[in-house]
From TrEMBL:
Annotated organism of origin: Candidatus Ozemobacter sibiricus
Protein name: Uncharacterized protein
Highest taxon of source: Bacteria
Annotated region described as Disordered, given as residue ranges: 39-63
Keywords noted in UniProt: Membrane, Transmembrane, Transmembrane helix
Residue ranges of the TM segments: 80-101, 113-139
């Protein structure tokens, strides 16, 4: 079998018969060959199984796959930094000016000095939160690693929440969801999330609050393909009727 993009021969280890897809190591193209074997490709429609089209690979995602391990990494950097960095500098710069003036121009023996030092503490907390957000968006990335034993999600290098590790024996199905919220001005925004349904019926969150739907759908596809999990509809996922999701998060 040859790659339809670059024409290179596909190694047998890079052909997934169960899902009728193959990966080209030369150009990293992932393509389906189900149309060449229509009888075999149609078997996925029985008993609730389905064959979804191979989603396009987002340019923001780095993928490294071998028969033993799948690693996917994407950066947190986004256009929000254009506004976040100047605002953080302005906010914290004002606080530096405020405390510099208070400490150098007003003697500590003056009761007013303590008022000047204590009054902006809430603003200091906001400034630190802005600085933390700015640094995480600027420097952090998320890496999902899948091997024969576990599925791991790691965020870093700046510490944050959301790291998770699951045994692959627990995994039943992966699916994406969308959540739309409306602010006080009536403007709507949609965030997407990637979840895993465990064999015991519980749901665990892998990634939440994302703006790139295609990124999550491609990661879902790659994880299921690598582990040999046949995709089936899950209530509440994107493109499936039903708003509620199965199970309850375990934290």
């Amino acid at each position: 079998m040859d790659c339809p993009t670059c024409g290179r021969r596909i190694a047998g280890a890079d052909i997934n018969i169960a899902h009728m897809v193959a990966t080209c190591r030369s150009c990293e193209e992932v393509f389906s060959f189900a149309d060449r074997f229509p009888a075999a490709g149609s078997s996925g429609s029985r008993s609730g199984w389905r064959e979804k089209p191979v989603p396009p690979r987002p340019s923001s995602l780095s993928v490294d796959e071998t028969p033993a391990r799948l690693t996917m990494t994407f950066s947190w950097r986004s256009p929000v930094l254009v506004f976040l960095i100047p605002f953080t500098i302005a906010w914290n710069g004002f606080l530096v000016f405020w405390y510099g003036f208070s400490l150098t121009q007003v003697p500590l023996s003056n009761p007013l000095a303590w008022l000047l030092l204590v009054f902006p503490l809430a603003h200091v907390a906001v400034g630190l939160a802005l600085l933390y957000s700015c640094l995480t968006v600027l420097f952090n990335s998320t890496t999902i690693t899948v091997d024969r034993q576990s599925l791991r999600v790691r965020h870093g290098p700046i510490p944050t929440t959301g790291n998770i590790e699951l045994s692959v024996e627990q995994l039943d199905q992966l699916f994406c969801r969308a959540e739309t919220t409306t602010d006080s001005d009536g403007d709507k925004s949609t965030r997407f999330s990637l979840h895993v349904l465990l064999k015991n019926g519980l749901r665990r969150d892998l990634l939440t609050g994302q703006v790139d739907r295609d990124l999550l759908r491609y990661m879902e596809y790659m994880i299921e393909r690598h582990l040999g999990i046949q995709d089936r509809p899950v209530e509440g996922e994107i493109g499936v009727a039903g708003a509620s999701s199965p199970g309850e998060p375990t934290g």
